[in-house]
Design a protein that fits this description.
Blueprint: H1 2-14, H2 21-44, H3 46-54, H4 58-89, H5 94-110, H6 122-144, H7 156-182, H8 207-210, H9 212-230, H10 240-257, H11 262-293, H12 297-325, H13 327-346, E1 348-349, E2 352-353, E3 356-357, H14 371-401, H15 407-419, H16 424-436, H17 439-444, H18 446-457
Antiparallel strand pairs: 1-2, 2-3
């Protein structure tokens, strides 16, 4: 035991010297490398294509996708405490990133088999999507665990924010590549930039949409490589069995102490609920638009780019409001915006806006030419603009509430609460959509998540 303590002390002392800037920049590019999975596959390209081009109908597609995401979320929830304990106590990160990154790459490349109109490929496709989700989440978990070794404590927030912003940009760039160069409208045979798809990709069989999977895998390999080459790994501290025991013991102590910290406990519970709602809203927004308006990859991808830009601006402006009014007010305001925008979206259909009849989208019409499409676009941008500050201010509020001598431990608990119920939102959307055969009814359940999160937040006293 004394040898272990002495070794930990030497490691802590050694960490006062931090790696060069190239190592930090290489680490930041992990977010750039991983983001296309979330942008291209789960949100704006492959998920809507699956719902409208592979599944029998959009409602069934949304339901099946919800079940797959729920299964992945459940696996992540069950495994994250164990793997988080290993990441915190054992030291080595890169072998785990490589292993789960390989799962992400192989599963993403498998999505190429997703030919339209072939129901026999639905089970292997959904299995691949679920595996890719697990790979992406756990590779991210171990990558995040490297942060304290890269910069001094006073710069951790800047490092995290820069990585987050870099991921946003990477997602936008990958989306522009798919929309502008690979995925074409089946009717016109042209991409968003008016070009013929590269590599002779066939628009009729949606090869451009399917190429989002292999592109995600290749993108990850290329842009994660600098991290493996230039970012130093943390030295091994303990054997896996010992690290597992110690990490779970500390987590158990933190959870047992939460009842004595009522504001912190209420906030963690609120974060667990509204994060589930936010993730589900982003995950199913593209599928909902595809079923409601008949949008294809170009419309949904353009919508995604606008949402990402709105999210970046919202996070920047939300940071200024956070400094002036405090994170609790920013979180509450963001959730109110999300609630109003979601309620309004549920009252927008292809031929009506808030019960007012409008002309439906005309076949072959211009991009977002119908009034209902433009209304959905504006409301979606409001959701994007509110989602960024909601997540950023949540991290700030945790810093204000958590004991300063155990801040890293509580950030681990914060990450756990953000994932432990991540399967509930997709599962409820899937079940309600399947039972009612209505995408609108499935999405309406998310109102409950934001109302419950806001009610719990009101019990938090900001220090």
């Amino acid at each position: 035991m004394r040898r272990t303590i002495a070794r930990d002390a030497r490691i802590a002392g050694a960490q006062r010297t931090y790696p060069p800037r190239s190592a930090v920049v290489s680490w930041i590019f992990f977010d750039w490398a991983a983001q296309p999975y979330f942008t291209l596959i789960t949100t704006f390209v492959f998920a809507p294509y699956f719902a409208t081009g592979i599944a029998p109908n959009p409602a069934t597609g949304q339901s099946l996708w919800g079940f797959a995401m729920a299964a992945a979320g459940l696996a992540i929830a069950l495994m994250s405490p164990v793997l988080g304990a290993i990441a915190d106590a054992s030291g080595r990160r890169k072998p785990w990133i490589a292993g789960f990154g390989a799962v992400l790459v192989l599963a993403s490349c498998t999505l190429w088999i997703g030919k339209p109109g072939d129901p026999s490929i639905i089970p292997p496709l959904l299995t691949a999507v679920a595996l890719a989700s697990v790979g992406a989440e756990f590779a991210t978990l171990f990558n995040n665990a490297m942060m304290p070794t890269l910069v001094p404590p006073e710069r951790i927030g800047r490092l995290s924010g820069t990585g987050w912003a870099t991921g946003y940009v990477g997602g936008i760039v990958s989306l522009i590549i798919v929309l502008g160069l690979l995925a074409a409208n089946p009717e016109t045979g042209r991409t968003l930039l008016g070009l013929t798809p590269l590599f002779g990709l066939d628009p009729v069989s949606h090869q451009g949409d399917r190429a989002a999977g292999p592109l995600t895998g290749l993108w990850f390999i290329v842009f994660v490589t600098p991290m493996f080459l230039f970012t130093p790994d943390y030295p091994a501290k303990r054997p896996v069995r010992e690290a597992l025991h110690e990490g779970l013991s500390e987590l158990k102590q933190s959870i047992k102490g939460l009842p004595q910290q009522k504001s912190l406990a209420a906030f963690l519970l609120a974060n667990m609920i509204y994060t589930d709602g936010l993730v589900s809203l982003f995950a199913f927004g593209g599928i909902y638009a595809a079923g409601t308006f008949g949008w294809h990859t170009i419309q949904i991808g353009t919508f995604g780019i606008m949402l990402a830009i709105a999210g970046a601006f919202g996070a920047w402006f939300g940071g200024k409001l956070d400094d002036r009014f405090g994170p609790k007010r920013v979180i509450a305001g963001s959730m109110l915006v999300l609630l109003l925008a979601l309620a309004a979206i549920l009252l927008v259909d292809k031929d009506s806006i808030l019960f007012i009849k409008v002309a439906p989208p005309a076949p072959g019409g211009g991009l977002f030419a119908a009034a209902s499409e433009r209304a959905y676009l504006v409301l979606g941008c409001l959701i994007g603009a509110a989602g960024g500050p909601l997540q950023a201010a949540s991290r700030t509020l945790l810093i204000r509430l958590a004991p300063k001598d155990r801040i890293a431990q509580y950030f681990g608990l914060f990450a756990l609460t953000g994932k432990v119920t991540s399967f509930i939102g997709p599962l409820l959307i899937g079940v309600i959509t399947a039972v009612t055969a209505s995408q609108k009814a499935g999405m309406a359940v998310l109102v409950v998540f934001f109302v419950a999160g806001l009610a719990l937040l009101m019990r938090v006293r900001e220090n």
